[in-house]
Design brief:
six-stranded antiparallel sheet; five-stranded mixed sheet; 2 helices; 45% strand; globular
Amino acid sequence: MNVTLASLARRTGLTVLDHLEQSVTVPVVDGLQAQGDLIVIPLPVISASIQVWTGARWRDVPAGGVELLRGEAGGNPHTLVADPGACRWTDNVYDADALAIGLFETSAAAYLLHPEHGATGCVPGTYVIRRQREQEGRRSRMVAD
């Protein structure tokens, strides 16, 4: 089933800015995805540096989604959304690089929605959600969205 940006916003109650084309079909892919200051990475790509805590608290992603991060510069939220019962997430993870916000498992397409960036979708699987870093000379810093 094709999901448009408009239908995703409607079903979650979240809004996106008017400059985005609302009738566009949201792409659903199986690889790396970047959205502003976040990056979504399939767990197998970085499994050596990620560990879920013993006794981690997993939560189902509700119909309205889970706010993962609010952008520093604009204050807009990155929200994980999925069909009820299809996706769960935890922020009880250890990341050797100290960039992980959390991890999610989904049995159907799950989406990352942002008011300015629109949406991207992930095929069923397990993914790590991380902050992005950028290099400036010899120093690195978190990407500010």
